[in-house]
Design a protein that fits this description.
The chain has 3 helices and 11 strands, in the order E-H-E-E-E-E-H-E-H-E-E-E-E-E. The protein is of the alpha+beta class and 171 residues long.
């Protein structure tokens, strides 16, 4: 099997998150979990000063682009290229060009693998991110994505939430 590489996909401006959601759904529906490993819309925290008030917000690093770590073959190319909102891969003509390791390091996307001793059913506390201080039981573990899924009570309903290994600790 070929090695998974990072590719850049051009999207309509403002459709980055929708494209990510559509590709994630296509991965699930077509069982391409082993070929399309990760879909990312890189963001950064920025502090804006308006009328003397500091406001922290999240901004897309590359508006109009989505990064995808995948094994390039006819099936994965077709799925990504024909996703609603995608205008094409970045590269000459119709041939996508993967990002180099150096380019990925400059983007800060290179992540170390975190080894965990969690099991489904273990109680965890979220120690970072949007869900900080949330407590939940692990419903599933995704080693490839380095994340766990927990159920969170939202508006009186159990809602599954994916949390990175880096943002959790065992209770």
């Amino acid at each position: 099997m070929a090695e998974a590489r990072w590719y850049v996909v051009h999207t309509y401006s403002g459709y980055e998150n929708k494209v990510k959601a559509n590709i994630d759904k296509a991965i699930e529906n077509r069982h391409l979990e082993n070929e399309i490993l990760e879909v990312s819309v890189p963001t950064q925290e920025v502090v804006e000063l308006k009328d003397g008030v500091r406001k922290q917000s999240t901004r897309k690093m590359f508006p109009g682009y989505v990064l995808i770590k995948m094994v390039m073959n006819d099936d994965t190319w077709y799925v990504v290229r024909n996703t609603r909102g995608v205008t094409g891969f970045v590269g000459p003509g119709s041939k996508p060009v993967p990002l180099t390791e150096e380019e990925m390091a400059n983007l800060g996307i290179k992540r170390e693998n975190i080894e965990v001793d969690f099991e489904v059913g273990d109680m965890i506390t979220v120690i970072g991110g949007v869900w900080k201080d949330t407590v939940g039981a692990i419903v599933s573990i995704n080693e490839r994505k380095q994340s766990v899924t927990i159920n969170v009570d939202m508006f009186g309903r159990e809602t599954p939430v994916e949390i990175s290994f880096a943002d959790i600790k065992k209770m």
